[in-house]
Design a protein that fits this description.
Strand order of the largest sheet: 13-14-12-15-16-11-17
Largest sheet: 7 strands, parallel
CATH architecture of the largest domain: 3-Layer(aba) Sandwich
Distance between the termini: 37 Å
Number of domains: 4
CATH topology of the largest domain: Rossmann fold
Bound molecules: adenosine-5'-diphosphate, magnesium ion
Number of helices: 21
Number of strands: 23
Radius of gyration: 27 Å
């Protein structure tokens, strides 16, 4: 059903939903929350510590006072719960004055912040006591939002959609709540019914039900994916694009300013052999961040081009695609390589796009670098013989297939910094060979790490200022774009503004996040790479693959909110030259458990080991907020924590086939 038929959603709201690719109730019900906010029991003021996110039940003990500093208004008042008194502040919301009455009893939920010597709540949410009592102990969904459409508005629409579809009946095949899994499997695996899983993923009735719902939906994703893989069949063995060894690759290796490490050499040898074998190559290249995978891709692409074929190099983000394009154009010129590269991303538009597509179809372009735009329908290849996907775990495998289908069956090299066990790789990618680069290029100093709490922030600011004074650059990562949905979580917008105040004026600060226009993102990345920005405050969009060797500090706020594999990826953005690099993991909500987790990062620099230790420590109940990085092959399933579900799905699909 079109969402415009839901009560309260008109043309305007529907247009906002459309930005999130939500058109009908099915889309809405399949738009799973990005996170959950746990509403705890009421706390006593005298128990609060700085940084706690908490709810207090209080009387308002002073009338609200409003004052102005420049154009900013500050509304403040005191509250007391008998255990202690505290101050509540709202910035830029003078209109709230009329709703704050001395003597009123209510609940405020916010993050305890130190102002002078006293704790206060800044911009907390206010609740009627009965309203908060209903929320206490529940997990409330937080959705990805778009400008003009809040998480609460999405939640409301989802509820309506659910009610509407339930009353229309869930047993009809075209109901978005219809259970598509065979009944036998649901019974055998003890899975929650589909309609109940959808209910609990959006409106969890309890933590246990939420986990059950999540597992049910993850299982289904794996099941349907594996079914699709089996139906599609595997790639043919004999290649339409046989190659012979060429002198150009050896010549390039001689001209490089460095020698390949022995692992790089071994990997290149096996790729070279694969390509000449007459069979189709499908190879997964795993190597930690900074281990030097890009040069291997370039060698393979060079080999394909010298054999008269086209090569394609796919990156998961615009930023990374542009960077690869620049790197390869630079190498083409410097080392006189026979590449005729073009860039194809969503940003290449109009006449330029037409020319680019023409050059790809005629074969004038022999190397095509870009994002998923590479496999959109309009793209026709001349003779696509070799495809590299960088940081493949960011891609849907199905999208990769779409590209493969364009050129028959090209050789495929999948590069990933996030390792998965071989058995899982076989299930997820089909039949493939796995190569690994274990060692880092020589001359790299190990990154120095620290895990600290917010009390350390002034020291950290002094430290990054010193690094900038030495001519080095700094990344600062915050989990969200603006002060939207999550209380007590740093955001890029406000953080960069407060950093501007905290640091010397001449330090150049740039901002990068996924909601910016692509042109703006590229511009910022270019400026950072060119050394015209000293500190880049960013969301995790820089996580994957970006290479700015002059950056020596990676500073992560709310580190406790990230998966360790993701933090390790972020850390891999520094330590890319012979300079000493540093990584600062800032905990904004310090608990012993999160410290124990983060300590794993201090003791290991091996992404393979980190991912598995994180898994062990987190255990099965600990599923949200710290999804492992990148693997958005699946919407809700996580290849790290769901290996058992994947095995089940594989078993069940295979049993059904026989
Ligand atoms: P990743 O595996 O994370 O993709 P990159 O391919 O971006 O790593 O390589 C990181 C940096 O190391 C690049 O600047 C690259 O030029 C450099 N590099 C690659 N191989 C070597 C090597 N054998 N010796 C020295 N530097 C190397
Ligand atoms: Mg890379």
């Amino acid at each position: 059903m079109d969402i415009k038929n839901l009560k309260g959603i008109g043309e305007k709201t529907a247009a906002l939903f459309d930005k999130l690719n939500i058109k009908d109730t099915a889309d809405l019900l399949n738009f799973f929350p990005a996170d959950y906010d746990h509403f705890g029991p009421i706390c006593q003021i005298n128990e609060l510590k700085e940084g706690d996110v908490a709810a207090i039940r209080v009387y308002i003990t002073s009338p609200p006072a409003v004052r102005y500093i420049k154009s900013m208004s500050i509304l403040s008042f005191n509250v007391s719960d008998g255990s202690d008194e505290m101050n509540i502040v709202y910035f830029n919301a003078p209109y709230l004055r009329s709703s704050i009455k001395k003597g009123e009893e209510c609940v405020f939920r916010g993050r305890a912040t130190l102002r002078g010597k006293r704790l206060s709540f800044n911009n907390p949410r206010k609740y009627k006591i009965t309203d908060y009592e209903a929320l206490a102990g529940t997990d409330q969904p937080i959705y990805h939002t778009t400008k003009g459409l809040s998480s609460a508005a999405i939640q409301k629409a989802v509820r309506k959609a659910y009610e509407t579809e339930v009353s229309a009946g869930v047993m009809y095949k075209n109901s978005p709540l219809f259970d598509r899994l065979p009944a036998g499997i649901i019974e055998k695996r003890g899975l929650m019914p589909y309609y109940e899983a959808i209910l609990n993923i959006h409106m969890p009735q309890s933590k246990e039900k939420l986990i059950e719902a999540r597992n049910r939906l993850a299982y289904q994703e794996f099941y349907e994916y594996i079914l699709h893989m089996l139906e599609r069949g595997y790639t043919p063995r004999r290649s339409e694009y046989p190659m012979i060894d060429v002198a150009d690759t050896g010549r390039l290796l001689e001209k490089l300013p460095f020698q390949l490490t022995s692992d790089q050499k071994a990997v290149w040898d096996s790729i070279n052999m694969d390509l000449c074998s007459g069979n189709v190559m499908t190879r997964l290249l795993q190597g930690d961040v900074g281990s030097g995978k890009t040069i291997i891709a370039v060698l393979g692409l060079l080999m394909a081009v010298c054999n008269g074929y086209q090569g394609a190099f796919m990156a998961p983000t615009e930023v990374l695609a542009v960077q690869h394009y620049d790197t390869i154009r630079g190498m083409t010129k410097k080392f006189d390589l026979p590449f005729k590269p073009v860039l194809l991303t969503g940003l290449v538009k109009g006449a330029l796009r037409k020319d680019t597509l023409g050059a790809i179809a005629s074969g004038d372009a022999n190397l095509i670098i870009g994002t998923h735009a590479l496999f959109q329908e309009a793209v026709e290849y001349h003779k696509l013989g070799f495809v590299v996907t960088d940081e493949q775990h960011r891609f849907g495998v199905l999208q990769r297939e779409a590209l493969m289908q364009k050129g028959g069956s090209p050789h495929v090299l999948i590069m990933s910094a996030t390792p998965i066990p071989r058995t899982l790789a076989m299930i997820l990618y089909g039949d493939l060979e796995v190569s690994t680069i274990h060692t880092m290029p020589a001359g790299r100093l190990p990154i120095k790490n620290c895990v600290v709490d917010t009390g350390y922030r002034p020291t950290a600011y002094k430290f990054i200022t010193d690094e900038v004074r030495k001519g080095n650059q700094v990344y600062i990562i915050c989990p969200q774009v603006d002060s939207g949905e999550l209380i007590g979580v740093e955001n890029v917008t406000e953080y960069s503004a407060s950093l501007r105040v905290a640091l010397p004026n001449d330090i150049r600060i740039g901002v990068l996040h996924g909601q910016m226009k692509s042109t703006a993102k590229d511009k910022i990345m270019d400026e950072f790479a060119g050394g015209n920005i000293d500190i880049l405050v960013s969301t995790t969009v820089v996580e994957v693959g970006v290479n700015v060797p002059n950056a020596t500090v990676m500073y992560i706020e709310n580190a406790e909110r990230f998966g360790l594999a993701q933090l390790h990826q972020l850390r891999g953005r520094v330590g890319r030259s012979d300079k000493q690099s540093y990584c600062i993991f800032m905990m904004n909500n310090a608990s012993d458990k999160s410290r124990e987790r983060l300590d794993i990062l201090l003791n290991s620099n091996d992404g393979f080991e980190i991912a598995s230790k994180d898994m062990e420590l987190r255990g099965p109940g600990d599923i949200f907020g710290i999804r492992q990085s990148g693997d958005i092959i699946f919407k809700i399933g996580d290849i790290y924590q769901d290996s058992e579900l994947i095995m089940w799905a594989k078993e069940d699909v295979t049993a059904a086939e026989i």
